Structures are given as C-alpha cells and as structure tokens.
Amino acid sequence: LLLVPIAALIISFLRNVVGFPTFGIFMPVLMALAFRNTGLGYGLGIFTGIMLLGYTLRWALDKLHLLLVPRLSVILTFVILALAFAALLGSKLDVKGVMAVGLLPIVILTMTIERFFILIEEAGLPEALRTVLGSAAVASISYWIINKETVQFLFYFYPELLLAVAGLQLLLGRYTGFRLSEIFRFRAFRGVS
Questions:
Q1: Which positions ≥6 away from 52 have C-beta within 8 Å?
Q2: DSSP string covering 95-164, please?
C-alpha cells in the first residue's frame, strides 16, 4: 500500500516530463503492483495475451452493437475466464508467476481493452500501440523501482516520506515545460528561427 504513491509519482514523471503515453495513471500503477506477484516477464506476457484476445473479442462484440455496460460485462467475464485458464495452466506446469495471475487488476484490464479499441477507432492503430506499449513500459519501470528492497525498506520504516512524495507530486502538477519526447518530435524545427 505504501508503494502506490511512489509508483504514481514515477508514472507522473514519466508521463509529464519524459512524455510516455499511457492509459491513465491507475492502469500502470496497478500493473506494476501486480508484476510484483507474477514477475515482470510473466506479467507482461499475460498482459499482452489478454490484450490481444480481449481486442479480438471487443472487435467481434462491436458487430452486435451492444450497450456499454453489457459489453463491458462480457469483456470482464472473458478476462476472468482467460486469467482462470492461465492460472490453471500455470498450476499444471508448476509455474508460480503464471499462477499469480488472479492478482492482476481485472477491472483495469477490462477498461484497457475497451479504451484500446476506442483509441484504434479514433486515432489509428499506431497511436493505440504507442499508448499500450507506453503503459507497459511505464508499469515495468515503476515495478523495477518499487521492487527495490531499499525503496521498500525506506517507506516501510519511514512512512512519513510519503509527505515528500506528495510534495514532489505537487511540483510535477505545476510543470508546464516541454516533455523530453517533444525534443525529438520537433527536432526539425530546431534550425528554424
């Protein structure tokens, strides 16, 4: 629980200063925490598999013209079935990282599938892929940092450090400068005066 604000700070920095595109802040935070149980490799593999299968299901459901809530209910049911299948497969193969899939944020995966589909419709496949890859990268970086024993030790024994994290989050909220990714995006204009 104490690691959630740290992950949120990392994600805020990576989004607002570096320029990683993500599906909000909650999805990468919860994925980073889930990766602590599944391991990064298994977690990313399961995330990718569920996103691909979920997109296929969402594409098929689009032809039925369902209302939002029933459509999300079907996707949620599918995500749970896919996670249950992965857990059973992990149990059969004795792979502990796959057995921990029940700890992946089911609701977040469901909403991410829906948002991924909508982003493809609105902005195209390249932008949707950039966003899903950015989300996975930010979750991985956050996982890597919050999984450090030093970080866990510091915030477990000195929870008042969360006040410093909140202060840094406030500073990031006031940042209005360029993102580092924009330096590369607008490099052609550098010579223009």
A1: none
A2: -HHHHGGGGS-HHHHHHHHHHHHHHHHHH-HHHHHHHHHHHHHHHHHHHHHHT-HHHHHHHHH-TTHHHH
The per-residue pLDDT for range 156-192, each reduced to its tens digit, is: 999 999 999 999 999 999 988 888 887 777 777 766 5
Q: How far apart are the first and last CA of the chain?
A: 50
DSSP-based helix, strand, coil % in the chain, nearest 5:
80, 0, 20
- What's the token pair of residue 145? 């940092």
| Residue 119 and residue 127 in contact, taking contact as beta carbons nearer than 8 Å | yes
Query: Rounded distance, CA 67 to CA 96, Å?
Result: 38
- Lookup: tokens for 87: 């857990």
Tokens 């406030």 belong to residue: 170
